[in-house]
Amino acid sequence: MGFSKDNLKGFVLALLSSGFIGASFIIKKKGLRRAAAASGVRAGYGGYSYLLEPLWWLGFITMIVGEIANFVAYAFAPAVLVTPLGALSIIVSAVLAHFILKERLHRLGVLGCVMCIAGSIIIVIHAPKEHSITSVLEIWSMATQPAFLLYVGSVVVLVFILVFHFAPQCGHTNVLVFTGICSLMGSLTVMSVKALGTALKLTFEGKNQLIYPETWFFMLVVATCVITQMNYLNKALDTFNTAVVSPIYYVMFTTLAIIASVIMFKDWDDQSGGAILSEICGFIVVLCGTILLHSTKEFERSSSFRGGSYMPVSPSLSARLCSGGNGELEKHEEEDGTPSEEICLRRQELY
Amino acid sequence: MGFSKDNLKGFVLALLSSGFIGASFIIKKKGLRRAAAASGVRAGYGGYSYLLEPLWWLGFITMIVGEIANFVAYAFAPAVLVTPLGALSIIVSAVLAHFILKERLHRLGVLGCVMCIAGSIIIVIHAPKEHSITSVLEIWSMATQPAFLLYVGSVVVLVFILVFHFAPQCGHTNVLVFTGICSLMGSLTVMSVKALGTALKLTFEGKNQLIYPETWFFMLVVATCVITQMNYLNKALDTFNTAVVSPIYYVMFTTLAIIASVIMFKDWDDQSGGAILSEICGFIVVLCGTILLHSTKEFERSSSFRGGSYMPVSPSLSARLCSGGNGELEKHEEEDGTPSEEICLRRQELY
C-alpha cells in the first residue's frame, strides 16, 4: 500500500509515457491526413509523401519520447504497476481523437475509458513497493532462481512448439498462434528491459554496472526478445485485422508479463491477500475497459503501418496498437464516395 | 479492511438475496410463458392466467425471500457494502436466462457481468466494519446529528420541489424527475430500513427495542418512504421505457444511499484514503458493468408489470428492476409474426 518515492517516479513516468504515446497517434494521423490532402496519395496505397510532413515527424518523435519514458519507468517501479498502465494511452488517444480529430467517441467507449481509469487507480493504490536493488548481480540471482528458470524454460519450449509446429500449420488461420508467440516473448522482453533499465539507472547513479558481463547478457536478451516479438507481431497484424489482434494481444501480453514479474521479483510476497486480490480485480477491470473500447471502435488495417511509419521500439507497444489511432484515416475521407466499410473489407481480402 | 463476523453475515445475506431475487425473475418468467401458452392471452395484454400457474407463485415467493434476506442484511452490514451488491442479482438472472431460458448473453453482456463481480470484490475487500450498536437510541442520536438532519432536510426540500414544481411541468417528458424522486426517497428508505432492521435484530437478541417510541417512529418512516418511492417508481416505469429508467435509477439510488450512509454512520471515518478510493472505484466499476449489461439487452415494457405480478417490497428493488428478467417474454414469442421491436414501439406509444 505504501507508495515509495521510486514507485512514484515510475508511476509518473508511466503516465507521461501513456500521454506521449497516446498523443503521438493523433499528431501522426494529422500529419498523414495533411500529406494525403497535399499529394492525393494515401500511405495505405503506397504513398510516402508523409515523410515530407513535419507534423508526422513530430508525432514520430513524440512516440519515441513516450517509449523512452516507458523504458525508464520499468527501472523505477514494478512491472505489475507499469505494464497495465499502458492501457491509459488508449484513453489519451481516444479523448484527443474526440476533440482534435472530431472522431465521435461512442457512449460505450466513454464507459471503457472510465473503467480503464478506475482499474488503474485500484492497481496503483495496491501496487507492491519496488525492491531496492544495488547491483545487477542481484537481478541476476533473481533471474536464475529455479522458479523463474522454469518459467523461462516453459516459455521457450512453448514458443518453439508454436513457431515450428503450429505456425506453418495453422498460423494463418488461428489468431492465437502468432499472438501467442508475441505475448510469450513479450513477457521475457519486459523482464529483460526491467533488468537492463535498472542496470543503466545504477550506472547513471555512479555505480557502474557495465563491468559485469551480466549487464551485456541482459542487453543481448532484450535485443533477441524485442526482435522476435516485433517479427511475429507484424506477422499477426499482416494476417489478421487489428481489431482482432489488439485485445487478444493486450490480454495475453499483460497477463504473462505480470506472472513473470511476480515469479521473478516476488512482487506479491509481502502483500496481503486483500491487496493482491484488489490488484487482480483492477487488472481485470482495465482489461474489460480495453476490450470495450476496442469493440466500439471500428478498426481496420492501419494505413500508416503499410507506409512504414510504424516502428515498434519497446514492450509497451501493446498500448500503441490498441489505440487504433493510426487506422482510421479512411473513415473521414469518405468523400470519394466509397463507404469506409467497403474499403475495409476490400483491404482485408488483400492479405 | 478487517472483515468482522457481522460484516460476513451481512455479506452472505446480501449474496443470498441477490441469488433469490435474480432467480425469481427466471422462475416467474417461465411461469408467465407457460400460462401464456396454456391460455393464449399474455399478461401484457391483460391476461391473469398466470395466477393459476404454480411456477409463477414459486417465483413470487422466491422474490419475497430475497427481499427479506436483503432487509436482514442491512441489519448486519453497512449500507455501503449491501447496496452495491444488489447489482449481482442482474448477473444471476442474466446467467440463468442464458442457460434456462436460452436467452443468448451478448459478448459485452459477459463483460458487464465480469465487471460487476470484479467491482463487488473490490467493494467487499474495502468495506468498513459495521459499528456495534446496542440500542435504537444510538441510531436515533446518529440520525439527529446536524450533518444528517441537513441531508434529510435537503432531500425533503428537493423532493417537494420535484413533486410540486417539476412533476406537473415536465415529469412526463424528462426521465430525471420521477427517477430523482425515487432515488432521493430511496436513500432515506435504506437508512430507515437499516435503523428498523437493527432495532428488530436487537429485539430478537433479547434487548427489547419496541419499548422506545424511536423504533415506532423508524417504522413510520420506512412505510412513508417505501410508499412514496414505489408510487413514483411505478410512475417512472409507466411513463418511460425500463431500459431508460433502470440504469439511471440504479446509479442515482445507489450513490445517494451511499452518501446518506457515509453521513449518518460515518462509515469512512476510520478508513484510510486508499480504502475509500478503492471503494469508490469498485462502485464505479459496478455501475459501468450495470450500464453495459443494460445497453446490451433490449428492454421493453415489462409484461408482468402490467399484469400486476410486480410488487415491490424493499429498497433493493433497483436490482430487481435492473435485471430486466421480467420484460423479455415477448422476445421469445415472435411466432405470432409481429417483430418484437414493433411491439415495443407500439407499447411505448400507449403511454
From TrEMBL, chains A, B:
<keyword id="KW-1133">Transmembrane helix</keyword>
<keyword id="KW-0406">Ion transport</keyword>
<comment type="similarity">
    <text>Belongs to the NIPA (TC 2.A.7) family.</text>
</comment>
<keyword id="KW-0472">Membrane</keyword>
<feature type="transmembrane region" description="Helical">
    <location>
        <begin position="82"/>
        <end position="101"/>
    </location>
</feature>
<feature type="transmembrane region" description="Helical">
    <location>
        <begin position="175"/>
        <end position="196"/>
    </location>
</feature>
<dbReference type="Pfam" id="PF05653">
    <property type="entry name" value="Mg_trans_NIPA"/>
</dbReference>
<keyword id="KW-0813">Transport</keyword>
<feature type="transmembrane region" description="Helical">
    <location>
        <begin position="275"/>
        <end position="293"/>
    </location>
</feature>
<feature type="transmembrane region" description="Helical">
    <location>
        <begin position="240"/>
        <end position="263"/>
    </location>
</feature>
<comment type="function">
    <text>Acts as a Mg(2+) transporter. Can also transport other divalent cations such as Fe(2+), Sr(2+), Ba(2+), Mn(2+) and Co(2+) but to a much less extent than Mg(2+).</text>
</comment>
<feature type="transmembrane region" description="Helical">
    <location>
        <begin position="108"/>
        <end position="128"/>
    </location>
</feature>
<dbReference type="GO" id="GO:0005886">
    <property type="term" value="C:plasma membrane"/>
</dbReference>
<keyword id="KW-0460">Magnesium</keyword>
<dbReference type="InterPro" id="IPR008521">
    <property type="entry name" value="Mg_trans_NIPA"/>
</dbReference>
<dbReference type="InterPro" id="IPR037185">
    <property type="entry name" value="EmrE-like"/>
</dbReference>
<feature type="transmembrane region" description="Helical">
    <location>
        <begin position="6"/>
        <end position="27"/>
    </location>
</feature>
<dbReference type="GO" id="GO:0005769">
    <property type="term" value="C:early endosome"/>
</dbReference>
<feature type="transmembrane region" description="Helical">
    <location>
        <begin position="148"/>
        <end position="168"/>
    </location>
</feature>
<keyword id="KW-1003">Cell membrane</keyword>
<keyword id="KW-0812">Transmembrane</keyword>
<protein>
    <recommendedName>
        <fullName>Probable magnesium transporter</fullName>
    </recommendedName>
</protein>
<feature type="transmembrane region" description="Helical">
    <location>
        <begin position="55"/>
        <end position="76"/>
    </location>
</feature>
<feature type="transmembrane region" description="Helical">
    <location>
        <begin position="216"/>
        <end position="233"/>
    </location>
</feature>
<dbReference type="GO" id="GO:0015095">
    <property type="term" value="F:magnesium ion transmembrane transporter activity"/>
</dbReference>
<keyword id="KW-0967">Endosome</keyword>
<comment type="subunit">
    <text>Homodimer.</text>
</comment>
